[in-house]
Structure formats: C-alpha cells, structure tokens
Amino acid sequence: MAQPIVIWGSGAIGGTIGAYLRRAGRDVLFVDVVPEHVHEIAAGRLRIEGPVDQFTTGGPAVTPEAMAGRHKLILLAVKAHHTEAATRALAPFLAEDGAVVSCQNGLNELVIADIVGRDRTIGAFVNFGADYQEPGRILYGGRGAVVVGELDGRTTPRIRELHEILKLFEPDAVLSDNVFGYLWGKAGYGGVLKASALTNDTISEFIADPRRRPLIIALVQEILSIAAAEKVTPIGFDSFDPIAFLRNDGPAIEASLAGLVRYNNGTGKPRSGIWRDLAVRKRQTDVTAQLAPVQAAARRHGIPTPYVDRLVALIQAVEAGRRVIGTELADELADELGDERGGLVPAA
After folding, report:
1. Most buried of the four, 30, 309, 321, 327, by CB within 10 Å?
2. Chain segment 74-133, per-residue pLDDT in tens
3. How many separate domains does the chain show?
C-alpha cells in the first residue's frame, strides 16, 4: 500500500494543496496543531472557497501528538517562525530515505536542512494566494507560481515524481534547477508585501501609489543586492522581474510594477497574510523569521540593510502593540531612511 503524502501544517498553503491532492485521488495525511481544524478535515468538511475553485473534501487528519509511522514525503507548510519547532517535531516520522518539502514563504530550506540533513530537504516556492478563515474553511484567492527543485539543482527521480504530484494542484508547476533563484526572487517581492502590511492599502493600491514607488524600488534593490552577493540569479514570476530592479532599468521596473498591480487586482486575496495576521488575527507574523537569513547573508557580505532592518522593527512594533497600522508607518520607512542605500551589485 502506498504511503500517504503528509501535509504538516494544513492551513492556507498546506490545506489548499492537500485538498487538491485528495480530490485527485491521492492518499493524504493532514497534520495540524489546531484540533478543531483537524476535526473538520477528518469529518470530510475541508472547504476550499473563492474565485479560483469551490469544493469540499477531507481525509485522515491528526494533531502532531497523534502522529505515527515513518513517511517518505512530508510537505511542510507552517509559518517561517515555526519552521524549526515543526521540523524537529516531524523528524522522528521522516523515513531515512524520505524528504521534507518546504512549501513556505522564506528561505526555510536552510533551517530544515540543518535539522534533517540537506539530502532529505527539497526546495519549493509558492506564490498562490490563500487564507485560513476558520476551522475547515480556506479561501483560495488566486493562482500563482509553484516551483520545486533539488537544493543542488540536480534532476532526480524523486523531484520528477514530486513535480508530477504538485501538477495535480497547479498544472503549470515548474521543475527548476535554480530553486534558490525563485526563493530569492520571492524575498525581493516579499519585501513589497511586508511593506504594504504597514498600511491598510490593498497590495495593488500600495504598488500603484506613486508616493510608494521610491520606497518599493529601494527595498527590492536592497534585498536583491544580497542575492547577487550570494551569487544567486533571482528568477521572476507572476509579473515580478527581479533583473529589472538589479539593473535599475526604469522602464522595465515600471512594466513589472504595472503587471503586479494587474496580477493582484485579479485575485480574491487583496491583502497579504502578514496584514491579516496583524490586523485580523492579532498575532505574531513571520516577517522577522523570513528576513533573518536575508539579514544574516547581508552581514556576511558587509552589505548595509537599513530598509530591511527598519521594516522588521516597524512590524515588530505593531506586533507588540506599540504602533498601529497606517500610512504613516510606510511614510516613516521611506522618510527616515532616505535614499542612501548604495552598494548595489548589478546583475552579471
């Protein structure tokens, strides 16, 4: 009997992917820390809603405490700041020849590999829009890029098999020999999403606002300069063109931003999950955890990161209740730091 695909963290990302795999007839075991959510999934009441699709499914579901067995494929889909704890929790249930796939936001593969080993870690990049609404209910707001790849860029039998599995969810899923290129590309675009969460603007409103243009460009270029120092070529997706920012190509940057406005206007998820955590769920975001490896890489290369550092500080202030979301936070991020970023490394 074939082993199930384990979805460890069955919220917005994991729950959506798992629901599609179940609907396609694959054996899936859902794992989540919210007992009420686990109960709904096990009862066959996992509802996917939104403009992309609407259906109800379910399947075997447990909390981590009830987990058993050894499994060859575990899709990890928790927030970045829960990566270490979740990886340590799942490690006893990972087969010796198994792999953990980081279906997350951020450079979490580095954390996972330190715990289970690099040979048991697979890189993944996701950019679709989804939000956990309540137990058993997930909003699938918009399709987006889905990419998988071995950390060393090899095309192995297991990565081909995983690619075919993920195509059951996203038919246009990509198998890449440069998954870190996508992850660093998302780090650049993710900076825009994080900055937009300082305001109550939608993502498209934030990007389209001409007052935000210098801040957006400076923040993206600061992050991508670190990728360049790491000798990673960032790869674009869903209208985001990182090379345009690295080359400081004005017309190409404008075209990319216009495309991002259209892309975000076409989804049922107008604001980021970070904004939702701050404004709706009133809980800690994973901004600090997502940007920590970016900051660490910058320190290794002696690259200053005033925009990233201040962005993290502002998000932390909102999390702690010391500041309130509003346009003045984005103004502060732009006004206090000025335009003295320098040191950008052009694309090769």
Report:
1. 30
2. 999 999 999 999 999 999 999 999 999 999 999 999 999 999 999 999 999 999 999 999
3. 2
Does 283 have pLDDT greater than 60? Answer: yes
In a domain, 71, yes or no: yes
Is 145 inside any structural domain?
Answer: yes
Identify whether the C-beta of residue 153 lies closer than 8 Å to the C-beta of residue 123.
Answer: no
| Residues near 224 by beta carbon (within 8 Å), at least 6 away in sequence | 184, 187, 188, 234, 242, 245, 246
**What is the CA angle 159-68-59, rounded to 5?**
70
| Reported confidence tier of residue 335, pLDDT bands at 50, 70, 90 | confident
The answer to whether the beta carbons of residues 140 and 48 sit under 8 Å apart is: yes
- In DSSP notation, 176-238 reads -S-HHHHHHHHHHHHHHHHHHTTSSS-HHHHHH-GGGHHHHHHHHHHHHHHHHHTT-----BT
Instruction: Give Dmax (Cα) for the chain.
Output: 61
Q: Is residue 347 one of the residues assigned to a domain?
A: no
For 5, list phi and psi in degrees, rounded to 5: -80, 125
List the end-to-end C-alpha distance of the chain, in Å, as a whole number.
49
R_g of the chain, CA atoms, integer Å? 19
CATH code of the domain containing 307: 1.10.1040.10
Helix axes 213-229, 250-265, angle to 10 degrees: 110
Range of the domain at 207: 181-337
pLDDT digit string, tens, across residues 169-209: 999 999 999 999 999 999 999 999 999 999 999 999 999 99
**Are residues 160 and 225 both part of a single domain?**
no
The last residue of one of the domains, among 177, 193, 216, is 177
Give pLDDT, residue 340: 47
Torsion, Cα of 185, 87, 62, 57 (10° steps): 10
Q: Under a CB-based contact definition with an 8 Å cutoff, are residues 288 and 150 in contact?
A: no
Check if the beta carbon of residue 275 is closer than 8 Å to that of residue 196: yes
